[in-house]
Amino acid sequence: MEKILEVKDLRVSFHTYAGEVQAVRGISFYLKKGETLAVVGESGCGKTVTSKSLMRLIPEPPGEIKKGSQILFDGRDISLMSERELRELRGSDISMIFQDPMTSLNPTMTIGKQISESLVIHRGMSKTEAMSEAIKMLDLVNIPDADKRAHQYPHEFSGGMRQRAMIAIALACNPKILIADEPTTALDVTIQAQIMELIADLQVKLGTAVILVTHDLGVVADVADRIQVMYAGQIIEHGTIDEIFKSPQHPYTWALLQSVPRLDTKNKGKLYSLKGTPPDLIKPPIGCPFAARCEYCMQICREEMPEVTVISENHEVLCWLKHSMAPKIDIPEALRGDK
Amino acid sequence: MAQLSKEKFQIIGCENANADEISRASMTYWQDAWRRLKQNKVATASLIILILISIMTIVGQYINGFEFQLTNNELSNVEPNLTHWFGTDNLGRDIFSRVWAGGRVSIIIGLVGAFIDTVVGSIYGGISGFFGGIVDDIMMRIVEILGSIPWLIIVILVSLIFKKGILAIIIAMTITGWVGMARLVRGQLLQIKEQEYVLAAAALGANPSRIIARHLLPNTLGIMIVAITFDIPSFIFGEAFLSYLGQGIQSPNTSWGALASAAQPNLMFYPYQLFFPSLFISLTMLSFTLLGDGLRDALDPRLRQ
Amino acid sequence: MLKFLLKRIGYMFVTVWIVATITFMLIHAIPGDPLASAARKLPEQIRINFYEKYGLNDTVIVQYGRFMKNIVLHGDLGESLAYPGRKVSDVIKLHAPVSARLGIQAVSMGFFLGVSLGILAAFNRGKWPDYIVMFIAILGISVPSFVMASLLQYFFTVQNMWLPTTGWGGFEHTILPSIALSFGSIATYARYMRANTLDVIGQDYILTAKSKGITKLSLVWKHVIRNAILPAITILGPQLAGIFVGAFVIESIFAIPGLGFNFVSAVGDRDYTMVLGQTVFICTLVIISYVVVDIVYGLIDPRIRLTGEKR
Questions:
Q1: What are the strands of the beta sheet with A36-40, ordered from one edge?
Q2: DSSP of A141-156, one letter per residue?
Q3: If pLDDT is split at 50, 70 and 90, which confidence band does B208 have?
Q4: Hey, is the C-beta of C310 within 8 angstroms of any chain A C-beta?
Q5: B158, B246, B274 member nearest C268 (Cβ)
Q6: CA B145 to CA B46: how far, in whole Å?
Q7: For chain C, which chains pass the contact test of at least 3 CB pairs under 8 Å?
Q8: Which end of chain B is more exposed for a tag (fewer CB within 10 A), N or C?
Q9: Which residues of C fall within a CB distance of 8 Å from A55?
Q10: What is the number of alpha carbons within 13 Å of residue A25 lying toward its C-beta?
Q11: C149 contacts C176 by C-beta, under 8 angstroms
Q12: ipTM > 0.90 (yes/no)
């Protein structure tokens, strides 16, 4: 399967009064046609900045995509595109849906019009053509009474319906990539499942590749093909879903997996929680960013960034524990032998 | 890459000491607000200007030796010079002294008026907001109706009822002026009542007076301070407005408004007579407004650093 | 929706009635003999006849009843005390058009110029257009309208004789007074719109719109301005009220024969019935404009129009 997106050594910083915040510190990854890549990590790890940078939606200033970064799509480098080229790209080749459907829709414009907007601009449709296409999209995302709903305003929709409308807006022009930034975080648990199902469904129907950004590993389990785990602006591990869930390698990944509360744990012990907070990105640590919170931290971890260890074609990890000189640490008991 | 020695690969675990450490000593809300205000250059400059003007209103009229009511028909309508720094008016009175004597009156009206507005408004708004329900409904209806009569019209009408003078002016301007403050305080109270930290305090068993003192008051105080700062210029303006209508301070006493309105007909011939009182009216109103802006930013708890 | 309309209009009538009552009571609280203050040396007999004719001997309650009856049934706001025979309504009919012309110019200038400046400042945040607009805004809020009027008068008519100092006639007579009258409004709108527009620009739905790749013009017009301008309409009411009253002093300074100028003279003449009648008229206008603005806003904002409830 061919790669439709390749990111090489992406660095994104923000220039603030307090100093330069290095939100993304040199990450590289790719996306294949039609696959779902999950980008996982806690708040502040740089996953949202990464996703917004793919579409150059970070205001520059104060943001800056550093020289040497490459975002290769369709033979062109997004980081070098002009404003006009970006406008052609957005909504038509790459689309995005956001976390809070309540505030992400224009309150004074009908849903139908908000869907039609991209169709008129990118597909050159007339207003009437675009509107009927918009109604088809609303149907596609399972909104009943689509023709009536198209003329309604966002506040007349429920939370779950609004998120569906967002999806309709994003997929109207059949983009090659859909970036979903925490699409279910603001929704009820039952609706979460529906939305994820819808996205998976549409993906099959339209052949869209999806980048799913989330802090919730539970959401990822059923839909992702590959997962990459981010911490303090770097990708510390990435692999296929099987590899990550069945044989995770990085202590942070272990912590994330252990933090997912489960109903079927045999021992009713305390809930696992990882102590501490992510490091300050104005003065990022020299060594491994996770050193301060890692129970397996070694002297070398504090002094130098670990090298990439390749475990398989799709599975790589950034950790000194994989070095030949390091002690052999096994996957924690709690994570072994599940699934 | 440096040689990697075996020792570097011993597990030493994480340093939890750093992890939850708070880096800076925390400041109280008021300390933080004062610090932020000082950083705001415009607001600080305004504060300094206001302090200077206030000092001048206290001592200004005594500086150059001319009493503000002293007339001298030989020296009427003299342009500003080294003896009469701001010139003289049509009765030969020294304008410099008159400006500072008048300033005293204008600023006192501003301060007293704003104070009354605040006290009355806060009590009214406080009762309305605290009790809520039907008490709040009725009280707010009354406020709505009072508020829909243009303030300046009430000021004019009420000023006709009383004998002209400072008291009449203050009464006229405060009789519905407190409405704005009442709405503000009530709004703030309603908002705070719903806030989670008040619920938390109540859940922890704090009694009502403690809740009022520790939670409701400090937050309302900030809003009130800002409101007072914005209220004072309205009074200075109102007093000047009344003077232009002939209902202001009467001779021989004077105020900035009285000075300005008296000089208005002479604009073509003696512009300086209008210039100085107008300058100080505008400067004072401007400074209070800018200070108010700065205070509002400094006291906004969401901007705390 | 209909309920909303009816409620507002009913409320309007009640408020107007209460305001008229309050005004009546205030006027009748003014001490002194109205006729004596009109500085007329009338022979005893004529004064007695006058009192008889205007029912000034009756109790306040009776006078109030007559006052309300006249207004509601005949639209009669009373007669002048200083110039007997002159009806208040006639005076209003004569002078209101002048004030209306000035007022409309001032309100339009205030709204359109103020809103545009505010939007301009918001889109150029931190750059020089922002500073200039903020400077103008601060000036407009702090410098009283009469000081502005004097400044304009001095500079444009005394120092340089570009425009007429006082009077009323052609378009040139309306320029300076309109500017003086609207300056405060321009400043208020500019500040308000700037804050509002900045607020809207920071909203999530703007990011959504951007991610669709729409043109800058579309973004600004259909997404930013459409949402930012709605709240500006709500302050139209108080702004109108401010211009009504601001006209008092501006018309006096520029000797414009409008309602405001007339009102000021009536106050000076102690022509209390005239003051009463004109006050009721102006207050009614103010209240009506508040309600109209309220209703218009309710129709424009889809959130209120469709659910019929206040936000």
A1: A94-97, A177-181, A209-214, A36-40, A226-231, A234-240, A316-318, A308-310
A2: TT-SSHHHHTTS-GGG
A3: low
A4: no
A5: B246
A6: 36
A7: A, B
A8: N
A9: 211
A10: 25
A11: yes
A12: no
Report the C-alpha gap between A31 and A140 in whole angstroms: 25
Q: A304 vs chain B: nearest CA distance in angstroms?
A: 9
Residue B152 in tokens: 């300046």
Per-residue pLDDT of B225-239, as tens digits, reads 888 999 999 999 999
A170 and A164 in contact (C-beta within 8 Å)?
Answer: no
Say how far apart CA C156 and CA C160 lie, in whole Å: 5
d(CA B225, CA A112): 47
On whether any CB of chain B is under 8 Å from the CB of C37, the answer is no
pLDDT tens sequence for chain C (311 residues) = 678 788 888 888 888 888 888 888 888 887 766 555 554 555 666 667 666 666 666 777 877 888 888 877 777 777 777 777 788 888 888 898 889 999 999 999 999 999 999 999 999 988 899 999 999 998 898 888 888 888 888 888 877 777 877 878 788 888 889 999 999 999 999 999 999 999 999 899 999 999 999 998 989 988 999 899 888 888 888 888 888 888 888 998 888 888 888 888 888 877 888 888 888 888 888 888 888 888 888 888 887 776 654 43
Cβ atoms < 10 Å from Cβ of A267: 6
Q: How close A290 gets to chain C, by Cα (Å)?
A: 32
Which chains touch A (3+ CB pairs under 8 A)? Answer: B, C
pTM of this structure: 0.82
C19 interface with B at CB cutoff 8 Å: yes
Chain C CB within 8 Å of residue A86 CB: yes
CB A237 within 8 A of CB A318: yes
- Give the one of B6, B13, B19 whose C-beta lies nearest to A297's C-beta: B13
Distance CA C237, CA C286 (A): 8
Using a 10 angstrom Cβ sphere, with 0-12 exposed, 13-18 middle and 19 or more buried, the burial of residue B89 is buried
Residue type, position A31, single letter: L
Q: Which residue, among B156, B162, B174, has the nearest Cα to B118 in the 3D structure?
A: B174
In this structure, the number of other CB atoms found within 10 A of the CB of residue B234 comes to 21
Between A57, A122, A156, which is nearest C211 by CB?
A: A57
Q: Which chain B residue is nearest to residue A293, measuring alpha carbons?
A: B14
Residue B265 at interface with chain C, using a CB cutoff of 8 Å? no
- Partner-chain contact A98 C213, CB within 8 Å: no
3-state SS class at C15: helix
CA dihedral of B54, B59, B61, B66, whole degrees rounded to 10: -160
Phi-psi region of B89 (alpha: psi -120 to 50; beta: other; left: phi over 0): beta
- CB proximity B9 to A under 8 Å: yes
A299 with B7: Cβ contact below 8 A? yes
Using an 8 Å CB-CB cutoff, list chain A residues near C215.
87, 121
Q: Which residues of A touch C203 (CB under 8 A)?
A: 103
The answer to whether residues A266 and A76 touch, using CB atoms and an 8 Å cutoff, is no
Q: Is A305 on the interface with C (CB under 8 A)?
A: no
